[in-house]
Please model this.
Amino acid sequence: MPAEPDPNKLPPWQPQNAPPAVVIRQHSNGRRPEVAFGPQGSMPQPPAAPEPLPPPPTSAPPAQAGNHRATGKASSARMNVDYEAVRRLRRQVSDELSAVLTNNANVSADYRQAEGERLAARAVREYVDGLMRRGEPVSDAQEQALLDAVAADLFGLGRLQLLLDDPTIINIHVLGCDHVRIERSTGEVSLGPPLADTDDELIAMFQTLAMRAGSTERSLSSTKPWLDMQLPDGSRLTVVYQVSVRPIATIRRHTLVDISLDELRDRYEMMDVLISNFLKAAMRAGFNIMIAGLADAGKTTMLRALSREIPEWEQFVTLEESRELQLEKTGRHPWVMSLEAREGHGSRGADGRPTGEVTIADLIPLTLRMSTQRIIVGEVRSREIVPMLQAMSTSRGSMCTIHARNPRAVMDRIIELALSHGNEMRVDLARRMAAGALDLIVYVNVEDETKIGGRKLRYVSEIVEVGGMAEDRLVSTTIFGPGPDGRAVPRHLPERLRDPLMRVGYDPRELTGYIAAGERNLGAWVRPLATIARRR
Model:
């Protein structure tokens, strides 16, 4: 914990380049499967050998800049892999695996995958040996790339798996089978390899994925030409086709899952010590908090960091359209109950909804019967805003995120979503519901300078106290507001929330010296915001 700043002495800024917005954690998963591993006893004979496979190229072209993997093993994204050979090898291994498991139906998924990897390693080895006997050299890197591709096609996400295995990639944008745009944590943008040979093959891959992945049923079809789901590694996948010229897919990686407010302050400079201390006290006091900002501003990351302040043994509920928070996976909250919405299928009922559909709006009233005081909604973006506000008005410590262009637009966005709830909702009623449910609005901003050679800079720009209603007007106080560079600095002392903060050991008067500094108020930020635009 850094030393508390002196309100009477503003910290000097030492100009220097800010650290990268994301710290890359390298890992290696390049161990090839051991051929000696396999089931006990005799093995059934594999099916007859398939037709000869086309040989892979004897040399690989130079790797495109930015398309390397940081996993310590060769990547088929860097090798000119023959995917016709991959498909044939995958079919061969799939047939052999089916034969092996014919008399062993009740085996675990881990056993099935291990046996498949063993068979894939043998099939690739035999294929490569055949090429080399014919005088066609194959390097270890090419053999490894071929094995990676076969394993990914058999058990993973095909060619997409090779990109997901790269920890430096944070976003993947797909426009058709052969247009792939990759964003890395360093801010670098590059083109990736094709994910399929045709658009139809790409859609078939996503349809298969929708059927077998996730804990709730998903589909991608002509009657529902979109898909929103969580991938096995926790990434978020969104797919649209038929209503677009070519299939469109976006994958957002979550690199900061187990994150704290201290880490956001010290490693990523998303806030200063004044803001982190205030937010910790707000969590101790059980304030209802709404986190707002643009897409990719870091709202979900902020929500995870705030959730880290929840006591370990507290029972609470998370509600999401598709799981992104992943609080149940960190091990820090053994009593978190993670609920996910479910899509409906088939005919529509009397209410006009697809059979089997379960929405967040359906789940919120249910959570109130679970003896929990805290509800966390990953993202509020539709009519569920009304039951969410109703739940917040009778709970403490609840949180959610919402998209808004700027802090002033947050309340307008809340009213807009509330009006979609039904004809009985009015503007004044929506405003009163928000005033009675919310305590704080935290706005996170993002400055994207990747197009001019910079990076994405994310930071808290404003923290607003919701003070209730005065006649027909909502009262608010800007506790932290934009400073000279847009980052939040102390502006006013809290009013309605002062006493609850004092009861949990936080004295808001520590902000007084900064507020009194006026234009010299730079908060407690360690260094100036290192933007390219401001250096010009």
Residues 7-78 have pLDDT under 50 and may be disordered.
